[in-house]
Specification:
Number of helices: 10
Number of strands: 12
Low-confidence stretches: 1-15, 141-151
Largest sheet: 10 strands, mixed
Order of helices and strands: EEEHEHHEHEHEHEHEHEHEHE
Shape: globular
Strand order of the largest sheet: 5-4-3-6-7-12-11-8-9-10
Distance between the termini: 32 Å
Mean pLDDT: 76
Oligomer: single chain
Strand content: 15-25%
Length: about 350
């Protein structure tokens, strides 16, 4: 950490140079005045490199509802709140350099959907990473559980963002919040847990995690489940021992001293339930997935069953890398593949 002379506050700096540089990224955070949106903002501040990356704070106004809402949800109040947080986070230089923007778009008719406006703007600005709270100003939603009464942890905007955005998404859940105070946040490692099973999309999730991890500080843990042999043929790239060796070498290359690989025997729990349990036990801040796994898409237009369950039922915040996003831009691979 260091001191920003103009504002007299602590600012984050990279703990060590990156072993392999990455492309500059554009982060977009959906903000609505809720506490969970503030956590999404603080998560972005922990992940971005203020020297190279850009940050967009995006808010959709709904003039017809202001009289029904608390003053803290008025656009002027939201912008004032985040302006203060921007300077407290030491991002004043990004604001001056126009690499940090607060964008407000007004909902013009009842036919417009906030969730569609969020994903459309992320696409328009070619965002690399969209961060959004798992629910918004209305509180926790009953999405996908209205007929049964079961309460899920995702609002409609959050689910739409993961399903239909062109870019990788981070869904922030209040059970595993990111530290807010700079004096603490800049010294506490963020733990990324990446679930891999040999698929290309899981590998892209790993590349996203090592690109976001602060060198010399954050940790990247790779977890793979050891499935009992069924006696049939299994390509070597899907064998747990091969996967563990591959990612041990990758960690040594990209996050030296800050990575680990764990192989866990399959339990009687379902795969997503077991992965989420491991993430909770190991206190992971972000559980990283590809949007689809080896078995293909089952539960929606873009999500596989494991990612879908973890998003809606798991306690950990989740990073989802999509089939059509450019996660390969996150890390400049060395000549040799890993």
């Amino acid at each position: 950490t260091g001191i920003n002379a103009e504002y007299g506050i602590l600012v984050a700096v990279m703990a060590a140079p990156r072993p392999h540089p990455r492309q500059p990224l554009t982060f977009m955070v959906g903000v609505d005045g809720s506490d969970i949106a503030c956590q999404a903002f603080h998560a972005a501040c922990r992940m971005l490199d203020p020297d190279t990356d850009a940050l967009i704070l995006f808010h959709v106004t709904n003039p017809g509802r202001y009289q029904e809402m608390a003053p803290c949800f008025h656009p002027d109040a939201i912008e004032g709140k985040f302006q203060a947080r921007i300077y407290r986070e030491g991002l004043g230089d990004m604001l001056k350099a126009r690499k940090l923007e607060f964008i407000v778009r007004e909902k013009e008719s009842s036919a417009q959907k906030v969730r569609e406006m969020v994903t459309a703007y992320a696409s328009e600005r070619e965002a690399d990473l969209l961060l959004i709270g798992s629910y918004g100003a209305k509180g926790k939603s009953t999405w996908d559980g209205k007929s049964t009464g079961k309460r899920d942890k995702l609002g409609s905007t959050a689910m739409h963002a993961v399903q239909y955005s062109h870019c990788a998404c981070v869904l922030i859940k209040n059970e595993t919040g990111f530290p807010e105070e700079l004096e603490t946040a800049n010294t506490i490692p963020i733990k990324y847990m990446v679930a891999v099973e040999g698929s290309d999309l899981a590998h892209e999730g790993y590349k996203a995690a090592v690109a976001l991890a602060r060198p010399g500080l954050d940790r990247v843990e790779v977890v793979t489940l050891e499935t009992p042999s069924s006696g049939g043929y299994m390509p070597s790239c899907f064998k747990p021992q091969v996967i563990a060796q591959r990612y041990t070498e990758a960690n040594d290359m990209f996050v030296p001293g800050c990575g680990s690989v764990i192989t866990v025997p399959r339990s009687r729990q379902s795969v997503p339930m077991q992965l989420c349990s491991i993430a909770s036990e190991r206190e992971a801040h972000l559980l990283c997935f590809g949007s689809q796994g080896l078995s293909g898409n089952r539960d929606g237009p873009t999500l596989g069953s494991v990612a879908n369950w973890a998003l809606k039922k798991g306690r950990s915040s989740v990073l989802i890398v999509k089939q059509d996003c450019q996660a390969s831009l996150f890390v400049n691979d060395p000549e040799e593949e890993f």
